[in-house]
Structures are given as C-alpha cells and as structure tokens.
Amino acid sequence: MAEPEEPRTAHSDRGRTQALAAAERPPAPPERPGAEDPEETLGTDAVAPSMVGRSQFQLARERFFHHKPAVAGLVVFFGLLLLSTIGGHFWRYSYSEITDQFSTGPSLQHPFGTDEIGHDLFAQVMTGTATSIKTAIVVAALATVFGTMVGALAGYYGKWADAALMRFTDLVLTVPLLAVLLVLANTLSKQANSWFWIAIILAALLWTYLARLVRGSFLSLREREFVEAEWAIGASDARIILRHLIPNALGPIVVNATLTVAVAMLTEAALSFLGLGIQPPEVSLGSLINDGQGAMAVLPWLFFFPAGFLIVIILSINFIGDGLRDALDPSRRTNS
C-alpha cells in the first residue's frame, strides 16, 4: 500500500532549492594555518589606513614635527619671545631703572649683572630681545606682502608689467644697502618709535629677493591646467591669483619670510652697533652689544649676554626655516 504523499509547502520547496545549490557549489579551498578572517580582523567599522585622506597642511605639519632641529628651534624661539614680552613685566627691575649696584657681576639679585650706572642687565636684555624680535617680525611682514604683490603681478601678467616691475626690482638691488641704511637711519631713527622707522627702512630694501622668487613661481604656475580652466570659466584675475596661484606658491613665501626675520635682526643689530639703529630710551640687542663692546675686557657680561641671546635667536630661526623648507618641499627632506 503506497504511503500518502506529504503536502508540498513553500518551506519545503525552499529547503530543497538550498540543498541543490549547496551541492552544486564548488568546495571551499582549505584554510591556511594562522589565517584570519578579514572581517573579524578589521571589524565592520574599520577603515584601511590608505583610505584615510590627509590634507597638504596635515602632511606638512607632520613632516615639520619630525624635523627635530626645527622643533627645538621653534620651542627656543617662542620661549624667548614669551620670556621677553611677558616675563619682563614680572621682573623686579625695569630696563630703565637705576639701582644702587654698579658694575656688579651676575648674581641671584642680578642674574646678568649690572652696567656702570646701575641698570639691571637682565631687564635690559629682555626688553632688547622683545624690541629686536618685534622689529624683525614687522620687517618680515611688510617685505613679504610687498614682495609677493610685486612678484605676483610681474609673473601673472608678464609682458610690459613684468618688464617694468622687474626693472624696478633690479634698480633697488643695485642700490648699496648699507649706504642707504646709514643715511636713512641717521635721519629717521631719531623720530619717536625709532624701532618702527627702522623696520620701515629695512622692509623697503629686503623685499626684492622674494619678488623675484614669486615671479618665477607664477611664470610656471600660470601655464598649469587648473589656471587655464579658471580662465575658461571666466574667473577674475584677482580670484586666480589669490585663490589658486598664491596658495600654490606659499611654500617658498613662508620659508623666505622666516629667513627674512633672521636677516632683519642681524641688519638691525648692525645698525644699532654702529650707533644708527634704535635710539635711547629704547634698547635692542644691537644697542646693548654696542654699549658692552667697549667694556668687554673689564665687564664681559655686558657684551656676552646680549650677543648670546642674538646668536641663539638667529640659530633658532634658521632651524625653523630649514624645517619649513623640508616640510613644504618633501623632495629636499633629509632624515632627521
């Protein structure tokens, strides 16, 4: 007697279909010892490191902070900047205050000693450092802005604009720097806020190298495809220069601005050493070196402390410039 046939259902049909598909599927390859499931390794929310995008600024910052001398220079420079601008306000003596200690060597009361008339040298060095740094920063800012503007206009427009602006730049380059500085400094340094006038003079003569540098970068960049695309969509010249060309030439501009700070500090110190820089009652590292070099044999601390601060600041700025150059131009990067 035949057994009654079971009624067919959707569930039984689906089971038979899955069984047939499993029988037809090729066998899985044998697992290698120690192999891990990638889904278990990464997890459902994991992202491969290569898929994580980083901006150019992040890459440059990472390269800069891997440059150990540059990081050390940055720490030293900002440490001296904070010490000179903020620490001087909490020191017991003012840079212009006359104490009852004359020509004393370094001590706990006067860490850098005193001069012949009783000025505390530590207070004077702090004030001179702040004056020299702010003068150099103003010089670098003004020279960078003007040099970038001249170089950008010459490189972007070319032709008559390039010829006129570059001939003007060449004219400034041919002027004897020291002679002009001596004449102008002798006239303007006697004005109020003499450090500001010295900064104006230096900025008026230190923008030429950056102008030629920016011009060369713009001559190359204006032939690139993204500039031609901007021209094709009708973008204005100001937009192309400010939004595209200057950001792409920012590396050389930043590095040159950093090095201009060092050049300005040395030039200001040279002028003050010659007695034509920042005038009393203001003080700078250059004027302190000038005052101390006459008594160096008898009171050596009057010369060595301001000179030492100037050397340390210049070295730190140069290290920062090297780090920025390597960070913004990876092809020149060296292992640090």
User: What is the helix tally?
Assistant: 14
Task: Write down the overall geometry.
Answer: elongated
Number of strands: 0
**What is the succession of H and E elements?**
HHHHHHHHHHHHHH
Describe this structure in words.
The protein has 336 residues and is an all-alpha fold. It has one domain (67-91, 120-332): Orthogonal Bundle (MetI-like fold), CATH 1.10.3720.10. The chain is 67% helix and 0% strand. The protein contains 14 helices and no strands. The protein has helices spanning 10-24, 38-42, 56-65, 68-90, 121-157, 159-174, 177-188, 194-205, 208-221, 225-232, 237-248, 250-273, 285-293, 301-328.
Walk me through the topology.
Elements: H1 10-24, H2 38-42, H3 56-65, H4 68-90, H5 121-157, H6 159-174, H7 177-188, H8 194-205, H9 208-221, H10 225-232, H11 237-248, H12 250-273, H13 285-293, H14 301-328
Helix pairs in contact: 3-14, 4-5, 4-14, 5-6, 5-8, 5-9, 5-12, 5-13, 5-14, 7-8, 12-13, 12-14, 13-14
Write out key terms for the chains shown:
mainly alpha, 336 residues, 14 helices, MetI-like fold
